[in-house]
Specification:
Helix content: 25-40%
Structural class: alpha+beta
Strand content: 15-25%
Distance between the termini: 33 Å
Largest sheet: 11 strands, mixed
Radius of gyration: 23 Å
Number of strands: 17
């Protein structure tokens, strides 16, 4: 999901970034000056790593942004507590015999300003996201709709030709270019949420300011202070408002994991969305925070990206040399230590609709010892014209989070053993991924988490026409043709084989260097209910609950600071 940092792609600067910056500047309200939760109310303090670059669900790409969008918007389908697709605004769906036409029937629903949500809002949203002016990194997901790709080009047809229509206020019809049984998984993604046409037409890019924004989910944004918090409060117009426990959720951009950990322990935070990986064994010890630590297998892959516009990195030999000399076993067993698994292919284990482990493609050097890989890397570098007399010099950009810095430094040392001089440049996460999107980098470190439970959520990133999130600009017509073939293959087994053949192609081309398959890591106060660990690390605020504040406004209920197992 979400271009991601340990998601999605990290940051795409969307159309409303400027308005958010304005909203956050001026009167900066420090956190310590804010009142505590009012007596009798349920308030959840949620550590969310970073500030969102936008509150517009159609231009966001980060996991942390999607966490907020999931609280404030809802699509035809929504996430349940396990991150599975269940009906949301749609009450039912019908599919034509050929799988190309899907008809959705919508429940009565309202925006947070009391205006009705209609099928026309979906049509408006889908036409908007494919327009080049919207600059959405997720526009490629809409290529599945008739004319979706054409509309995303510079000289597209009329927006009315998109394969989305609303015969009436409560019926939405989607026309696909090929069958997609995974469509419900896709439709719960934030890119497919409706957006309020009446508000956007009035305010333009400023529609996401807290004083203007209108949403249709269980919560509505009531405040946003950069570097402090995004506050959402229960939306009284939500169709299931009576089932939403929390009155208020504050999403706090806490990038320093150990500092956030201490705040959870003191009872200042109820949830934090990450834990420094190497501290997990310590925190699980009796007398520390064993009941707070939550880990789970993650359908995510962390990987190195290569900008193929850089002459040296345009050579496959160089990319292979960089990939094979990463000591994945050291990184996962010695640095991460939370259950991460060395990755030699892009699609992580556990994805639906894919080949078994014995058929998963791996690089040709996989059976070699690490010493043999180093020798092979030196040979490939010499073949490309690099060696002691002409060393390869590169720059790697990555975010400044603790785990990312450790991994980058380990790879920097690995590459030095074969004569590659890589300088490491740390940046704020949003800045580094802006650079990835604009190709202002040589080597980078990213992670991708499933947007939907199908191998295409990973493999489609490398299509020639994907756009911003194909960070290295991999271009291979044969690869694109295999994905097209898979799209039109009705037999699931044959489709999986075609997709595996495509993945083998990007592994042989060393388009990226996969590093490890992830583990999601959270700290959760034992008083919080409704939390369910899952493969996608998806925890909708709609389901979270905890005891209401007791007594005076300054005396909120907290959990004990440490509890034995």
């Amino acid at each position: 999901m979400s271009g991601k940092f340990l998601g999605a792609g990290w940051a795409l600067v969307g159309a409303s970034v400027a308005s958010l910056a304005l909203a956050g500047c001026g009167k900066h309200e420090p956190r310590v000056a804010r009142p505590y939760c009012p007596p009798g109310k349920v308030c959840i303090e949620y550590g969310n790593s970073i500030d969102p670059s936008t509150l517009d669900p159609q231009t966001m790409t980060l996991v942390q942004e999607a966490t907020i969008a999931r609280a404030t918007f809802e699509g035809l389908y929504q996430d349940d507590q396990q991150g599975k697709a269940v009906l949301g605004l749609a009450t039912s769906a019908e599919t034509s015999a050929d799988g190309l036409t899907w008809t959705f029937h919508l429940r009565p629903a309202k925006w947070s300003d009391g205006q009705p949500v209609t099928a026309h809002d979906f049509v408006f949203a889908y036409r908007r996201i494919v327009q080049p002016a919207t600059a959405s990194a997720y526009a490629y997901l809409f290529y599945i709709l008739k004319n979706g790709q054409a509309l995303n080009g510079p000289h597209g047809p009329a927006p009315e030709t998109l394969g989305a229509e609303a015969p009436d206020d409560h019926t939405l019809v989607l026309h696909l270019i090929h069958p997609a049984p995974y469509l419900p998984q896709l439709l719960k993604h934030q890119a497919f949420y409706p957006v309020p046409e009446h508000v956007i037409r009035k305010w333009g890019d400023a529609w996401t300011r807290p004083e203007h924004i209108v949403s249709n989910g269980p919560f509505q944004v009531t405040a946003f202070r950069l570097a402090d918090y995004v506050r959402v409060e229960k939306n009284p117009y939500y169709y299931e408002a009576d089932k939403v426990c929390a009155d208020r959720v504050d999403f706090l951009p806490l990038s320093e994991a150990v500092s956030a950990e201490r705040r959870v322990k003191r009872g200042e935070l109820d949830v934090n969305d990450t834990v420094q990986s190497g501290r997990i064994p310590f925190l699980r010890q009796p007398g520390q925070m064993p009941r707070f630590v939550h880990t789970h297998t993650y359908l995510s892959t962390s990987y190195v990206i290569f900008n193929t516009h850089v002459p040296a990195l345009a050579m496959r030999e160089v990319r292979q040399a960089l990939s094979m000399t990463i000591d994945r076993d050291f990184i996962t067993a010695k640095l991460m230590r939370a259950g991460q698994i060395p990755a030699y292919s892009f699609v992580p284990p556990g994805m639906s609709g894919y080949v078994g482990e014995d058929q998963r493609p791996k690089p040709y050097w996989y059976p070699m010892s690490f010493a043999q890989r180093q020798a092979e890397a030196r040979r490939l570098l010499a073949q490309a014209g690099y060696g002691p007399g002409h060393p390869l010099k590169l720059e790697m950009k990555a975010s400044n989070t603790t785990d990312t810095v450790l991994i980058a430094q380990a790879m920097q040392a690995d590459w030095a053993t074969v004569g590659i001089d890589v300088k490491f440049r740390q940046e704020e996460g949003q800045i580094s991924f802006q650079d990835y999107n604009t190709r202002d980098f040589q080597v980078g470190l990213a992670s991708w988490i499933l947007d939907y439970d199908d191998p295409l959520t990973f493999l489609a990133l490398m299509r020639s026409d994907t756009g911003a999130q194909n960070y290295g600009d991999y271009r291979n017509p044969a690869y694109d043709a295999l994905l097209d073939q898979a799209d039109h293959e009705a037999d699931g087994g044959r489709r999986a084989q075609i997709l595996a053949k495509a993945e083998k192609m990007i592994i042989d081309d060393a388009d990226i260097a996969t590093v490890y398959y992830g583990v999601n890591r959270n700290l959760v106060n034992p008083n919080v209910t409704g939390w369910s660990d899952n493969f996608g690390d998806i925890h909708p605020a709609k389901y979270l609950c905890m005891p209401p504040t007791r007594g005076a406004a300054s005396g909120r209920a907290t959990a004990p600071q440490s509890q034995p197992q």
